[in-house]
Amino acid sequence: MLFRDQNVIVLNKPAGLAVHPGPSGGLSLEAALEALRFEARTPPALAHRLDRDTSGCLTLARRPSALRRLHELFAAGQIEKTYWAVVQGSPKAESGVVELALRKRNRKDGWKMVVDPAGQAAITAWRVLGRGPGLTWIECKPRTGRTHQVRVHCAALGCPILGDPVYGTTALRSGTPLHLHARALSIPFAPEGPPIAVVAPVPGEMLEALRACGFTGG
């Protein structure tokens, strides 16, 4: 747990844990919410979601009024989300903004998000934090909250996220974990006063690649 007060809990979700149970069931965070009730009358509720293979900051609401407030803030784009990714290749620029609308495409073997001008607007600001041999460490700040947005937008830059089995290249589909981490959240929950600011430590499975790009933390 990264943060807890009377309204909000922020967890450091590990990669590999689904937020919701899939069609075939299996372990999910949703099934464990009762254990996060603490002194509250009811279990917390999920205020947003992360992909199964994405680690990092995940927000829960501890009461219905808090859930409404968080949904309002997310919908208005007032919650700042910061992701760290290690991508394959190297963007030509040091920073930029990707504005590519996205829609879901159903396939026989499942679904994926695709770039489509007729889809939902999706905007991601990004900047390079470090470079290494064949890899780049980038920070992404999505201004919208579309499914798989950061993953699709990194691929659209020509630099798919390392280990991405859906939007990466065939060479990346070798069991390497997805190198995408929800690093930080800034939540202006109270109209007056400072925002809730939370940072999630880097997961062990990303450290080697991050250090190759210049990261010196633990």
UniProtKB/TrEMBL annotation:
<protein>
    <submittedName>
        <fullName>RNA pseudouridine synthase</fullName>
    </submittedName>
</protein>
<dbReference type="InterPro" id="IPR006145">
    <property type="entry name" value="PsdUridine_synth_RsuA/RluA"/>
</dbReference>
<dbReference type="GO" id="GO:0009982">
    <property type="term" value="F:pseudouridine synthase activity"/>
</dbReference>
<dbReference type="InterPro" id="IPR050188">
    <property type="entry name" value="RluA_PseudoU_synthase"/>
</dbReference>
<dbReference type="GO" id="GO:0000455">
    <property type="term" value="P:enzyme-directed rRNA pseudouridine synthesis"/>
</dbReference>
<feature type="domain" description="Pseudouridine synthase RsuA/RluA-like">
    <location>
        <begin position="7"/>
        <end position="156"/>
    </location>
</feature>
<comment type="similarity">
    <text>Belongs to the pseudouridine synthase RluA family.</text>
</comment>
<dbReference type="GO" id="GO:0003723">
    <property type="term" value="F:RNA binding"/>
</dbReference>
<dbReference type="GO" id="GO:0140098">
    <property type="term" value="F:catalytic activity, acting on RNA"/>
</dbReference>
<dbReference type="InterPro" id="IPR020103">
    <property type="entry name" value="PsdUridine_synth_cat_dom_sf"/>
</dbReference>
<dbReference type="Pfam" id="PF00849">
    <property type="entry name" value="PseudoU_synth_2"/>
</dbReference>
